[in-house]
Structures are given as structure tokens and as C-alpha cells.
Amino acid sequence: MREPNHYPYAPWVGRPRITWPDGNRLAFWVGVNIEFYELAPPPSATRSVWYQPEPDITNYGHRDYGNRVAFERLADVMADHGVRGSVSLNVALCDHLPQIIERCCELDWELFSHGVYNTRYLYELDEDEQRRVIADCRETIRKYSGQSLDGWLSPAVSNTETTQHILAEEGIKYTLDLMHDDQPTPLNVRKGRLISLPYSIELNDVPFFNFRGLSTSEYVAACKAQCDQLLEEGEDSGTVMCLPLHPYVIAQPHRVEAFAEILDYIANKRGVWLATGREIADWYIAHHEADMRQWLGMEAAA
After folding, report:
1. Plot region of 82 (φ>0 → left; ψ -120 to 50 → alpha; else → beta)
2. Which has the closest alpha carbon to 279: 7, 17, 81, 84?
3. What's the mean pLDDT in 100-129?
4. How many Å apart are CA 61 and CA 47, to the nearest integer?
């Protein structure tokens, strides 16, 4: 049977215990997908970029609304609640819309990579081509923010069977491509080290609203229930809650009050550590990765 073999099976019961800073039980982070789409991208042999024949003006404009209007609305709500963002960034936005990057840096948000454009996939790229994409992302983020590139979410989650190995070899600390757990996970890679950080497809606003057609009130209830359950389980071993968002979806005028309600609920819960993806990864690597590798019988990270 074919399996990805990035991580061994790890039953929840019996895992080495995770503790978060200051005795917190839940590490909460917001993954803000700030994306840049091309109206007429290069064709992909693997999947269609747009939903309608190109040029898909309607869907292009819907996404552009996120950068023109909704980003500032989202950023203001997060700042009001003391929640910093971790930006899943299409780095082409740095050249096209540097004002957004400036605001992110002013707010002390983390920038990590979501590829160059969200209309250019990794599926057809060989290893050298993927390395060039990673290098471009690293250099662009450093140029515009001074930050190191520590996290990765493949554009449109278009990772290949070798992507995680390449990320480790390129010095990336954490990946969001796998989405398989409520705790960080050390990965099997050819060389170096890489951990998988929880990234919730269930609470991702695009599939929740656009694909499943669920309501705003249902989203609020789901986020609160996710927080409560993970906090309870965090009594035994620390858990992670990620809220993956897109400004053009969650920061529409009719949803922004609900977004504020969610942040107010989570940020004021006892036992919640408001963190960035990088902070969670760094803490886990420093305090828990080695124990988990030993328990799983994995080789120590290089």
C-alpha cells in the first residue's frame, strides 16, 4: 500500500506530554492567507486555476477585494484583540502591494511563504525548480521585512512527494501541508529537520463558507467548540488551534463582527497562549521534539 511515510502512526494516548509557556494548555495562532492571483496565469496540466473560463473577472475581483479593502478590516480587528497574525504569503504581493507588508511588519506579524503566486503550483516542478521557488520566497521576505523564512504552506497546497524533504534541506522549520494532527509532529525527511504544525482545514474559512455553504453563526459556533475541546484536552498535553483565514472571506462587512466575537472568546480564555506559527515551532523544537522522536523510534534530527 502506498503511503507518504512523512510520519509514523502516533496514538494520542501515551504520547510524551507537551507543555506550553506559563502553563498554558492551548497554543492559538491565526494563519492569515494574504494571496496574490494572476488574472491570466500560466496553464497548469494538473488542475484548473479559475472556476470559469479565463479571464475569470468575477473570482479575480473577489480575491482582489481582500487586498484592497478587507485586509485592513481584518488587521484592525486582530490588533484590537491583541492577536498577531502569521502570514501565509504569496511573496509576489511584496512587489505588487508593499503597503500590506508594511502594515504586517508594523503589527509584528510573522511572514512565511505560500509560494510566489497562488496561481502557480508545485505539482509539475522538479526538485531544482522547487528549490528556486523557496529561494525566491526566502530572499523576498528578507528583503521586505528582514525576517527569516521559517514556515511553509505550498501554494494552493500543491505539494509533491518530495516537497517536505526539500523544505527541510532548505532550512524551513515547519510545514502546514499535512494537516493531520492537533499537536506538532516531527517528520521523516532525508536530511535536516522539519516539523508539521497543525493547520485546520475544518476551520479554514474558504472551504467552510464557499465549498460547504455553511453560515456565519455556524462558523462562530465551530470555532468556539474547537477552542473549548482543545483546551479541555490540553489539560493532559498541550494542543494547538489554528484559525486559517482569508481577508476576502472572513473580513467581508457582514462577517467581521462575527470574527471579532471569535477572537474575543478565545483571547480571553484562561490557558490560551496567543502565539505565532514560528513561536510555536521554536518552543516545540526546543522542548519536545527530541522526546517525541525517541518515543516514536525516529532518528534524531540532524
Report:
1. left
2. 84
3. 97
4. 21
